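Write out this protein's structure.
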Amino acid sequence: MVALPSILDNDFYKFTMQQCVLKLFPRAKARYRFINRGTHSFPNGFAEQLRHSVDAMSSLKLTKEEKRWLCNNCPYLDPVYLDFLEGYCYNPLEVKISQAGDKLDVFIEGLWYRTILWEVPLLCLICEIFFAMQQMQRENDEQVVEKTRNKIEAYGDLDVTVAEFGTRRRHSFNVHQLVVAALKKYGKTFVGTSNVHLAMVNETKPIGTHAHEWFMFHAAKYGFKMANTMAMEHWVDVYRGDLGIALSDTFTTDEFYEVFDKKFTKLFDGVRQDSGDPIEFADKTIEHYKRMGIDPLSKTIIFSDSLDIEKVKRIAVYCRDRIGMSFGIGTNFTNDVGLKPMNIVIKMTEALPEAEPWTAVVKLSDVVGKHSGDARTIELAKEILGIKKE
């Protein structure tokens, strides 16, 4: 059995979104499903091992020390929310796990404010159990640290700020801790990690705002035309200027910039690029700010799509002195240990806003052919939003 060390061993944006859901949509429900993008073959008994680890998560509780740290380091998290989190515990009954041959199925259903925390820890457990059960020998600790040091020093030479975003597809917790500790020790331009527990342990900043599911739910609640607008309105209502990086590609970047008007453009500090061509995205973003009469250098793009040193170098050279930039590095930090990383995700598939019927939700990537969700709903979304057929 693999045991997680803390209830905070999760991405920061899960907690920031959870606060919003509690405030605005306390009766909403959600469904999520595991997607095996890499078509990995799971060994016999994998589902049982995962089940044991999931059941053990019911004992995780926010400690007094963790609550104090959140209070001192995240002032935009309300005392009421922190009191809620102190009393929160995972309910393993919300997670259904099954295995047929080498195929794994994981399904999550329940109140959104509760189920929102499951995605990232489940992916962590699946990765760690997968490598452990197959007894795959990774590089040793010294090699992991040295490789991480070389990478962060190379990013420092590029003079770009870098955060670690690799929780969900890390090789293991131990590797993740080695990586974050090395980044903190050797990284002169390292700014923090998306993992809240490791941010606390390593005395660095937790990084994150919101994920695609925030916008996907708003499409179920308000329709595709209003999804981006209402998602950003509600984010601003809760955070009042804090956590001001908007995710741009849930329904394609072009659709996002149609509603990212002067109000939002001024209110948000910048945007995050998570799919498509980063150079094309940079051009679109710079032109958008110029059209709004805003100096692009006063705003920031957070690049976070499958980054490595060569890709970051290309982006940095192109964007230098044109727009602010920072980089969120994921799997290339936390699962570069001499083994092929897993390619797995867990996505929201349906939402139940209030007493309305269950509604399928989708994500329309900036990469042609990589939309996720029910095929019929994808086509409906493209028709409503006026997106060209592929």
